[in-house]
Design goal:
The protein is mainly alpha-helical and about 130 residues long. About 65% of the residues lie in helices and about 0% in strands. It has one domain (about 10-125). The protein has helices spanning about 10-35, 50-65, 70-90, 95-100, 100-115, 125.
């Protein structure tokens, strides 16, 4: 049985991957900046965690909308690479032991979005910027 018919849905799955990834990612920013969901994290203004939280919050929102997808995805990919090597890797080399699994996945999902674009369900596509 050929599964070739699934190819016609791949652009929409790209949009879905972008939206769902951004929703989950944005929650890290709301936690750092808005205190929701509640945590003991309270980064000082202009500290590295605060700047990361702003990027997670604003960048996540832009990706959900599919607005300026490629440049935002590029910046967030770099943020996640930086987070992995600065926060997680010094604890242990192995992601399963240092808690850096999500940072690596976000890094490469955002890098993929930088190259693939936003997909058809996006404000970028609506504006002809795919």
């Amino acid at each position: 049985m050929s599964l070739k018919f699934l190819s016609r849905y791949s652009p929409y799955m790209l949009s879905l991957l972008r939206i769902v990834s951004a929703l989950i990612f944005m929650a890290h920013g709301t936690q750092k900046i808005l205190g929701f969901p509640a945590s003991d994290m309270n980064p000082g203004v202009m500290s590295l965690p605060w700047i990361a939280g702003i990027m997670e919050l604003v960048g996540g929102a832009l990706l959900i909308l599919g607005l300026f997808t490629r440049p935002v995805a590029f910046l967030l990919s770099g943020l996640m690479a930086f987070a992995y090597w600065m926060v997680h890797a010094p604890q242990n080399l192995f992601p399963a032991l240092n808690g850096g699994d999500a940072a690596i996945l976000y890094c490469f999902i955002f890098l993929y979005l930088f190259f693939a674009g936003p997909g058809p369900i996006s404000l970028d596509a609506k504006a002809g910027r795919t």
